[in-house]
Amino acid sequence: MKRTATILRAVIGVAGVIQIALGIVFWTGNADSLVAVHILVGLILVFSLWTLAAVALNAGVARRPAGLTVMWGIITPVLGLTQTRLLPGDSHWVIQVVHLLVGLTAIALGQILARRIAGAAAAIDRRRERGIVA
Fold first, then answer.
1. What does the pLDDT average to over 47-74?
2. Overall domain count for the chain
3. What pLDDT shows up at residue 111?
4. Quick one: which of 93, 1, 78, 6 has its CA closest to 42?
5. How confident is the model at residue 126, as a pLDDT?
6. So what's the pLDDT on residue 133?
7. Residue 20's domain spans which residues?
8. Distance between CA atoms of 69 and 110, rounded to whole angstroms?
9. Please, which of 12, 39, 75, 99 could form a disulfide with 110 given CB 3.0 to 4.6 Å?
10. How confident is the model at residue 134 (pLDDT cuts 50, 70, 90)?
11. CB atoms within 10 A of CB 68
């Protein structure tokens, strides 16, 4: 459980760095040919979030953060895949900023959930040491 969360946290972190780097490249008007890579890495990030949410529920983490993470994992690709059609023209930068903030929030939610899983695992370990949990 804790190892899985650590691996997923790393995947989310690496995917997040790649996404931010690609986003910067796109904003500078370069490498539009890498949009498919951006989408693929984004989907990996979202699937990692969903898996992390399932691990969190299994680890006894509160349902609310896990549920929020699942919902955010739905919002993120929906916005990402539809953003080119939203506010076209001079105001499109607003959607780009929203997309960036939604992506950063997805990364942060993954990191927070992984920390909560580690905390829950540590609490279980402490109870086992005291003989409270089998």
1. 95
2. 1
3. 95
4. 78
5. 77
6. 59
7. 2-130
8. 7
9. 12
10. low
11. 15
Judged against a pLDDT cut of 90, whether residue 45 lies above it is answered with: yes
DSSP secondary structure string for all residues of 4-35? HHHHHHHHHHHHHHHHHHHHHHHHTT--GGGH
Please calculate the CA angle 41-45-50 and round it to the nearest 5 degrees: 145
Question: Which stretch of 12-21, 64-73, 87-96 has the lowest confidence by average pLDDT?
Answer: 87-96
pLDDT tens for 105-123 read 999 999 999 999 988 877 7
Signed CA dihedral, 36, 41, 45, 50: sign only: positive
Q: Which of 45, 52, 54 is nearest to 12 (CA)?
A: 45
Round to whole Å and give the CA distance between 57 and 65.
9
Find tokens 């890579």 and name the residue.
37
42 CB-contact burial (10 Å; exposed 0-12 / middle 13-18 / buried 19+):
buried
Nearest CA-CA partner of 99 in 47, 13, 107: 107
CA distance 45 to 110: 9
DSSP single-letter state for residue 84: G
Phi-psi region of 89 (alpha: psi -120 to 50; beta: other; left: phi over 0): left
